[in-house]
Amino acid sequence: MQEKQTVKLEFIILMASLMSIVALAIDAILPAMSAIGISINSFDTGNNQLLITMIFLGLGFGQLLFGPLSDSFGRKPIVYIGFAVFAVGSIVCVLSHSLEMMVAGRILQGIGLAAPRTIAIAIIRDMFKGDYMAKIMSFVTTFFILVPVIAPVMGKFILNHYNWTGIFYVQLVMAFIVSIWFWKRQPETLKPEYKIKFSSHEFIDGLKELIKYKETIGFTIISGFISGAFIVYLSASQVIFENQYGLIDEFPYIFAGLACGVGLSTFLNGSFVMRLGMWRLSYLAIIVFSVNALLYVLLFWNAATNPSLTVILLFMAIQFFTIGFIFGNLRAIAMEPIGHIAGIGAAITGFVSTIMAVPIANFIGSYVKDTALPLFIGFTIFGTLSLMIFTYIKSTRKRKARQEAIL
Predict the structure, then answer these.
(1) Are 14 and 124 in contact (CB under 8 A)?
(2) Percent residues over pLDDT 70 in the chain
(3) pTM of the entire predicted model
(4) Are 326 and 286 in contact (CB under 8 A)?
(5) What is the DSSP string of 116-143?
(6) Residue 47's Cα: distance from chain center in Å?
(7) Can you tell me the distance from the alpha carbon of 131 to that of 3, in angstroms, rounded to the nearest whole number?
(8) Which run of H or of E encompasses 229?
(9) In b/e form, how buried is each residue of 289-309, taking b as 16+ CB within 10 angstroms?
(10) pLDDT for 338-360, tens place per residue?
């Protein structure tokens, strides 16, 4: 492991770019949701949220496929296959005339994007470990966050000057550029001696190995809870700000502003994690995440309408500021014990957390119609469940450490 290696800025930006095509595919269409709905004859805002949540379903299953393949054939070839599947899904979306066809295209996009997303994490795990891995993940995520900042603004610009299909064409161009950059500049990180012969037993063997590590399982479940609550925001943000507040033109900038908060905290996490450690930092962040959401629920439980824009933005800003201290650290903690099966490990943990998140997002999102209260109820419930699991794992870990010290 090259724990003390100087990391090139290009590596960080390249890994962020691999992951950022996912954010581009999700966030760029947010301002166009209404226009897409009209074009495909889907006028129910609840159904249109499937255009966001279903791409995550594809991501979940795609990770399960591409992770094991990358452990057998190397990281790089699988990234190229993933981008090819994404291109097919994008074309299906452009040609869609119904909600069902569009959803199918989005699932295909998600399956394809699972390759660069999962393999970027596996590459980082191939090269680094521990808190230093969490630091690299934080810096990667900081650059990655730039995409949610600009994607809705870009989507709105394309929508105003062309039409919604142009958003998918831009995604295709960006994916092509990143794939060429990856091909030219990133060496293969899976050493030949670590390659696992691909067989039908690889997934089962990897799962058997993974379930030996309770920390990995626990933090994968926590990732599923937090991701599910966050995906509700992604899928319902257009409903909240455009429909409930009437901020159609302002929505991309509001979304960008909140994304900047996530980016700032992710950047700060890269510095703080080396001093406080990824365990303590993510634990404190989940506490704030849960308490902030609970406070909103208590204050506005009986309110028939949303609070003022300033108030809800304040609560959302605090909520999403904690996200930057949660996501990168949770994934790093989950991956730490399973570096010897990084590819299949990233695949299984990503699959489980995503498959957990999709039904959570669909269920809670179906209630976000008149007010944003269901969103914060979801934050409260799943933040609290995450905190309970985290506390249990921490206490178990301390108890085990005391027993080992005595022995």
Answers:
(1) no
(2) 96
(3) 0.82
(4) yes
(5) HHHHHHHHHHHH--HHHHHHHHHHHHHH
(6) 21
(7) 10
(8) helix 214-238
(9) bbbbbbebbeebeeeeebbee
(10) 877 766 777 788 888 888 999 99
